[in-house]
From TrEMBL:
<dbReference type="InterPro" id="IPR037401">
    <property type="entry name" value="SnoaL-like"/>
</dbReference>
<protein>
    <recommendedName>
        <fullName>SnoaL-like domain-containing protein</fullName>
    </recommendedName>
</protein>
<dbReference type="Pfam" id="PF13577">
    <property type="entry name" value="SnoaL_4"/>
</dbReference>
<dbReference type="InterPro" id="IPR032710">
    <property type="entry name" value="NTF2-like_dom_sf"/>
</dbReference>
<feature type="domain" description="SnoaL-like">
    <location>
        <begin position="9"/>
        <end position="141"/>
    </location>
</feature>
Amino acid sequence: MRKLTPDAALAITELQQMLYDLGYEIDANTGRAIADYYCADGAFVVGEHRYQGHAQLEAFYAAERDRIATTLQDGERQLLHAFVNPRIFVHDEGRATIKCFNLNFSAPGARPIAGPIAPNLLVECRLECRREADGHWRIAEFSSSPQFVAKTIVHHDVTKGDANG
């Protein structure tokens, strides 16, 4: 069992809040401010794909918004990232690792979504984080590995890197 210093406990609280705010940004804002959560050279890695730097991250989420608007029922997609079992390791004042699972729920159309609901994905996640000069923790690299994928999934093939992360 780990024993935390007060500084490490504060960093863990900040990192947890950043993780939960990241999920909210993706779910409620469809990633419009995604760059706020990443270092300038930060990367999102899923499957064989790597989206690095603010421009690539913003383009990834813009393409997802366009796809939703043009291909899904009502031009909408309901999405919920539930980050569970976070284990946070503070390496020093400026570096930390978050390991967690993402239960991803999604469905096309407007709310409310009717019928039985279950996660579409269970994704193992690892976030390498850095505290930047402004004092905020940001993601240097977010890597994800799908563990369970539902047979009916409303977004692209996650094993090839086309999932909304």
